């Protein structure tokens, strides 16, 4: 198996010298196990967020779509494709158990017709379920509400914004490139786009949402979040999903974002959070709903695919810097 191992703990933006790509012999499978060959590897923000929980020499985290090539488990027949959090490696041994960081047991991809299997890492997988359960369980959007999402050109953000459109909301997406902005407004139907790198977010938001924001889905954290929280409506809701603007900050200093207690108190804003791994028991519910929306033409997706397993690390760093539109994927 080809395997990416952590060489040095990441500091700031991860560097190529922080990882090793090595070859490893995979042991024979035991009763209850299966052997799977990676087809697509996912590069996700949580890999950066959780890296300090592993040690040099450990395999780097990562989910993948893999084909079962050998099996001693009746739950995992040879030839089926599974999604597993096996790490960045080309051959993996799996079994029917929740993985050590809490991901669901390897799940066999249901029949998705002619759609690409890579979608099981994006719109029909963990990010898609984050958008689905984030909306249904936390945001609970109502028709006519003003919905703001950051990271709007990425996997979760582009998806949850479309669900908000399906619920009849006015949707404002914030992201870091005009190309992302064109995609979400022209193809996905978002009402407005704000480029946080080139425009004044507070001013633009006040223009697009003059009466304030009903619900804010936060993928980014930091200063942009505070800016948006200052423009919530009375009894507005915030759904915290992630804080990618802080993941490379391991200086030990607390990020200096404007205080949010005052606007939260004055507007009686409610803050909630989505943690998709809390919905393991309902995993296929989200996937089936997202699949149905895709089939009905109500949910669109995009992938940024990097070819070659050996380019996984580069694809990861590019994603952290905004290089992806939609879901960042590596085709092995
Ligand atoms: P994306 O596809 O959105 O990719 C990450 C994007 O983050 C980049 O493309 C970049 O886009 C943006 N970004 C990077 N740095 C910054 C920054 N400093 N400020 C603003 N934006 C930045 O990733 P995902 O959709 O997979 O994840 C989005 C968020 O959701 C992350 O915070 C992730 O941790 C979180 N998440 C949470 C889950 C949960 O259960 N709570 C589950 C899955 C994801 P741009 O060009 O706009 O800068």
Task: State the gist of this model.
Helix content is 26%, strand content 25%.
CATH topology of the largest domain: Quinone Oxidoreductase, Chain A, domain 1
| Count of separate DSSP helical elements | 9
- Bound molecule kinds, no repeats: NADPH dihydro-nicotinamide-adenine-dinucleotide phosphate
Uncertain runs: none
- Give the topology string: H per helix, E per strand: EEEHEEEEHEHEHEHEHEHEHEHE
State the distance separating the first and last CA atoms: 12 Å
The CATH class of the largest domain is Alpha Beta
> Would you tell me the structural class of the helices and strands?
alpha/beta
Query: What is the residue-averaged pLDDT?
Result: 97
CATH superfamily of the largest domain: Medium-chain alcohol dehydrogenases, catalytic domain
Shape: globular
Radius of gyration: 20 Å
Q: Assess the beta-strand content as a share of residues.
A: 25-35%
Integer tally of domains: 2
Helical residue percent band: 25-40%
The CATH architecture classification of the largest domain is Alpha-Beta Complex
- Main beta sheet, described? 7 strands, mixed
List the helices and strands and how they pair.
Layout: E1 2-6, E2 19-23, E3 33-42, H1 45-50, E4 64-71, E5 81-84, E6 91-95, E7 107-108, H2 126-139, E8 146-150, H3 155-166, E9 170-175, H4 178-187, E10 192-195, H5 201-208, E11 213-218, H6 222-229, E12 232-240, H7 261-266, E13 270-273, H8 283-295, E14 303-307, H9 312-320, E15 327-331
Parallel strand pairs: 8-9, 8-11, 9-10, 11-12, 12-13, 14-15
Antiparallel strand pairs: 1-2, 3-4, 3-6, 3-15, 4-5, 5-7
Bound molecules: NADPH dihydro-nicotinamide-adenine-dinucleotide phosphate.
NADPH dihydro-nicotinamide-adenine-dinucleotide phosphate (NDP) binds next to helix 1, helix 2, helix 3 and helix 9.
């Amino acid at each position: 198996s080809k395997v990416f191992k952590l060489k040095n703990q990441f500091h700031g933006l991860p560097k190529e010298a922080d990882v090793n790509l090595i070859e490893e012999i995979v042991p024979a499978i035991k009763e209850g196990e299966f052997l799977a060959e990676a087809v697509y590897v996912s590069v996700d923000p949580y890999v950066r967020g959780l890296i300090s929980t592993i040690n040099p020499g450990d395999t780097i985290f990562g989910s993948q779509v893999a084909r079962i090539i050998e099996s001693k488990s009746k739950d995992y027949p040879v030839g089926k494709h599974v999604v597993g959090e096996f790490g960045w490696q080309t051959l993996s041994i799996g079994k029917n158990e929740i993985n050590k960081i809490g991901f669901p047991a390897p799940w066999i991809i249901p029949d998705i017709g002619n759609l690409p299997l890579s979608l099981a890492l994006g719109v029909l997988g963990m990010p898609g379920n984050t958008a689905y359960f984030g909306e249904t369980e936390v945001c609970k959007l109502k028709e006519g509400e003003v919905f703001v999402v950051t990271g709007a050109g990425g996997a979760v953000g582009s998806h949850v914004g479309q669900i908000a459109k399906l619920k009849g909301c006015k949707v404002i997406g914030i992201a870091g490139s005009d190309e992302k902005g064109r995609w979400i407004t022209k193809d996905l139907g978002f009402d407005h786009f704000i480029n946080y790198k080139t425009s004044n977010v507070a001013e633009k938001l006040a223009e697009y949402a003059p009466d304030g924001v009903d619900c804010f889905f936060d993928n980014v954290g930091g200063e942009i979040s505070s800016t948006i929280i200052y423009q919530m409506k009375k009894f507005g809701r915030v759904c915290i999903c992630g804080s990618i603007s802080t993941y490379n900050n391991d200086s030990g200093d607390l990020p200096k974002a404007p205080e949010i207690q005052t606007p939260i108190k004055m507007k009686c804003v409610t803050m909630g959070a989505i943690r998709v791994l809390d919905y393991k028991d309902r995993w296929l519910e989200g996937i089936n709903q997202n699949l149905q929306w895709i089939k009905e033409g109500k949910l669109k997706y995009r992938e940024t695919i990097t070819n070659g397993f050996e380019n996984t690390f580069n694809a990861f760093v590019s994603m952290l810097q905004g290089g992806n539109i939609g879901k960042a994927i590596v085709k092995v």
